[in-house]
Amino acid sequence: MENSYDLSLISSAFGLVLQLALPLLAITLLGALILGIIQTATQIQDDSIKFTGKFIAGFCALMLFGLSTLRTLTAYAVRLWGDVQWYQ
User: Whole-model pTM?
Assistant: First the structure.
């Protein structure tokens, strides 16, 4: 294998990880921020509220972006396994 091909595989894999993880992380972070503001305003400091809010935000993000994430990951796997001649 050539080093340039190896580097392109690694860089595309890192790019894919960022592309797939950022929507879930962003929505979960936004949900945690909103819940933190609400908890500060109401002075209710319960850890189960934080966990439940993050869980619901993450679940909603997966419901919104799950299908496109799966399609992107499948297209990457097909492209990766389609280049089998490089592995010989």
Answer: 0.71
